[in-house]
Design goal:
The complex is a heterodimer. By secondary structure, chain A is of the alpha/beta class. Helix content of chain A is about 35%, strand content about 20%. Chain B is an alpha+beta fold. Chain B has one domain: Beta-grasp domain (Ubiquitin-like (UB roll)), CATH 3.10.20.30. Chain B has 3 helices and 5 strands. In chain B, a hairpin with a 2-residue loop joins strand 3 (about 55-60) and strand 4 (about 60). In chain B, helix 2 packs across helix 3. The N and C termini of chain B lie far apart (about 45 Å). The chains are: A alpha/beta, B alpha+beta. At the A-B interface, strand 5 and strand 8 of A face helix 1 and strand 4 of B.
């Protein structure tokens, strides 16, 4: 299906970009993307995917809006406190861009359901907030061969990488083992600036948009580490790890058990 | 004595209290040996390396433990972070 006059006007500022055009915009329109997490990263990620005209965006989260979200999660207002984040986010994003479909999926992602939940998507953009889910999302994307646009933040540091299963290093290649439960602080314990989640989420969405439009993403096999104290940006070259339990020759399911950890919003 | 720069990221930076150190090394010393030496000064790193939680890059490229450290190398040690 082609672009309507409305769509051509709406997306005109990106359609005039040298590498973009109706063909690329149509690819975005026909794309189906899962955004895992509707928090500090999920807000900028889902917003920029919406603005760019990605045709179907499914947002996964099980949390409800809380007052402590508001230093970074800009899709919510105090009136939304207590409502499921995905429901509010989907409402706002549909209002912002009525041309696309936004679905709210109010569910927990774990190792048991990730492989089924994350099936049939053209891309997954991950902004979840704990290791068990991050490793589950990685393994599900690798097994289902879905490109994964990874972002993470903590304190003054942000991380972004683009994972194309079968082609690039996966999350487990870079980080084979999660830290022992309880040894790593969460955003609640260690803190994070909203602007930092904005930077990381924006880069993730840019990578995903480039990929979906058919342009080359810039962070394949590359872990971008952003340091907000000194504005230092390190690009670390990643390699596929021989014998990786996720993307190696034989897939080995390896759920991460943090059952003693309190979930964080 | 030849020195090598080691940079710490995220939790390693918090726990060591610094973002970089200069440490002496001998010719032919491997990354594993360098991590052992660092582990004496920073016991947290020793455990993280043993647990496979510390990813190590040399000159911005992830390397295995058998990489022989050379003069002028910049070593970066970082754990995964999960905040979102």
């Amino acid at each position: 299906m082609g672009l309507s006059l409305n769509e051509i006007k709406r997306y005109s500022r990106q359609l005039v970009l040298p590498d973009m055009g109706a063909r690329e915009q149509n690819r975005l329109k026909n794309a189906k993307v899962a955004v895992t997490g509707a928090g500090g990263l999920g807000c900028p990620v889902s917003t920029y995917l919406t603005l760019a005209g990605v045709g179907q965006i499914d947002i996964f989260d099980m949390d409800k809006v809380e007052l402590s979200n508001f230093n970074r999660q800009f899709l919510y207002t105090p009136e939304d406190i207590g409502r499921p984040k995905v429901e509010v986010a989907a409402e706002r994003l549909r209002a912002v861009n009525p041309e696309i479909e936004v679905n709210a999926i109010d569910t927990v992602i774990n190792y048991d359901n990730a492989f089924d939940l994350l099936k049939g998507y053209d891309a997954v953009v991950d902004g979840t907030d704990n290791f068990p889910v991050r490793y589950a999302v990685n393994d599900a994307c690798v097994v289902n061969r879905i490109p994964l646009f990874h972002g993470a933040v903590l304190m003054y540091e942000g991380r972004v990488t683009t994972i194309i299963p079968g082609e690039t290093a996966c999350y487990r290649c870079a980080f084979p083992e999660p830290p022992p439960a309880g040894s790593v602080p969460t955003c609640r314990e260690a803190g994070v600036f909203g602007a930092m989640t904005g930077i990381v989420g924006s880069i993730q969405s840019l990578e995903a948009i480039r990929y979906l439009a058919g342009l080359e993403p810039s962070l394949k096999n590359t872990l971008l580490i952003i340091n907000a104290d000194y504005s230092i940006y390190d690009r670390i070259k990643l390699r596929r790890r021989e014998g990786c339990s996720a993307c190696g020759e034989t897939f080995i399911p390896r759920p991460v058990d943090y059952s003693c950890e309190v979930p964080e919003g | 004595m030849t020195m090598v720069t080691v940079r710490f990221f995220a939790g390693f930076r918090e726990r060591t209290g610094t973002d970089r150190v200069e440490i002496p090394f001998e010719d032919g010393m491997t990354l594993t040996e360098l991590m052992k030496r660092l582990g004496k000064e920073f016991p947290e790193l020793k455990k993280a390396w043993k647990d496979g939680v510390a990813t190590v890059a040399v000159n911005h490229e992830v390397m295995d433990g058998d990489y022989p450290v050379k003069e002028g190398d910049e070593v970066a040690i970082f754990p995964p972070v999960s905040g979102g």
